[in-house]
Structures are given as C-alpha cells and as structure tokens.
Amino acid sequence: QYATTGCSLTLHHTEKPKHEAVCEYRPYSCPCPGTSCDWEGSLEAVMSHLMHAHKSITTLQGEDIIFLATDINLPGAVDWVMMQSCFSHHFMLVLKKQEKCEGHQQFFATVLLIGTRKQAENFQYRLELHGNCHRLTWEASPCSIHDGVSVAIHNSNCLVFDTATAHLFADNGNLGINVTISMC
C-alpha cells in the first residue's frame, strides 16, 4: 500500500496488514497529544504542520533545556507539549497528567523524535526533576512519533510519578523538568 511513498517490501497477502500497521512509509499522523487534529502527511511535513496548526507549542534550541509545565494543579487530564531542537533533529517533549485508576492521577513524561524508529535509536534522553535534597531521573531512547505518546505510556517507556511526587518538585504549581538529549 505504501510503495508510492518508498516501501519496497513484497509480502504474502496474509502478512500485508500486519506490516502496513507498522510500516515506516505510512503517513504520519499529527503527533500533538490532547488535540483532535486529523492531519496526516509525510515525515518532512510534520514540523511545518506543527508550526502552523499548533502555534502554541514553544520550541527551544539546544541539547540541555528546561521544560516548564505550568499550573500542574489544573483539574482533569492535561497535556503539556514543547519542542526541542538539537543535532539537526526535532524532539517533542510531553508531560501528560491523567487519571490512572479511581481518583489517582499520574504524570507521564516522555520524549518523541520527529523521525523514524531507526533514527530514534541514535539518541538518548534524560529527564530530571530537582528539589531540596531530592532528584528523580529517567533515561531512555526516544520513541518515534510513529509510535506516539500512548505507546510510550503503554510500554512504560517514560518517567511516571504521582501527584505527591509532582508537588515535591513543583514551585508554586509549576514543574521544571531538565531535558538533556544526547547521541548514542
């Protein structure tokens, strides 16, 4: 199905649906969490789409930045999104607050590469929360936007913490997460 966009595999008809679900050449969906955006397009068009359709997303340059999530006490499910540009690539930083089970809210922080799964293997990210006498650190390889935030959360490929931990590191309801991207 994706031969026109670069896929050169020839598969038996029984293997085709499984491959098409994960094919790197399938169109990319809008990676912005918390929106009902139906956009689809090529990998090369993702950043242009984000910059024009989701103008509220801030982009910071550099390998080491601070991702500031404001008003973490907002009720209900909330997503904070920011972009980080370094090593000639763009990374989507996401902090997601959602109810995990009856009244118990959790925070999930992860990094997605605006790129393929193969490209994502070339990078590592580190998320750090700092507080008085406390430090919480998570290191992992970013997921590709092809997988998305929900897959990162489902696979526990993210920093997970509860509301009490968030308040331990927050300053006046704002949470600063140090984000460092490095090449493998």
In a few lines, what is going on in this structure?
With 184 residues, the protein is of the alpha+beta class.
Walk me through the structure.
With 184 residues, this protein is an alpha+beta fold. The chain has a single domain (55-183), classed as Sandwich (Apoptosis, Tumor Necrosis Factor Receptor Associated Protein 2, Chain A), CATH 2.60.210. It contains five helices and twelve strands. It has helices at 16-22, 43-53, 117-120, 148-154, 163-169, and strands spanning 28-29, 40-41, 58-61, 64-69, 78-86, 89-101, 104-113, 123-131, 134-140, 143-144, 159-162, 175-183. Strands 3, 5, 6, 7, 10 and 11 form a six-stranded mixed beta sheet that branches. It has a four-stranded antiparallel beta sheet with strand order 4-12-8-9. Strands 1-2 form a two-stranded antiparallel ribbon. A hairpin with a 2-residue loop joins strand 6 and strand 7 (104-113). The two termini are 33 Å apart.
Topology:
Elements: H1 16-22, E1 28-29, E2 40-41, H2 43-53, E3 58-61, E4 64-69, E5 78-86, E6 89-101, E7 104-113, H3 117-120, E8 123-131, E9 134-140, E10 143-144, H4 148-154, E11 159-162, H5 163-169, E12 175-183
Parallel strand pairs: 3-5, 7-10
Antiparallel strand pairs: 1-2, 4-12, 5-6, 6-7, 7-11, 8-9, 8-12
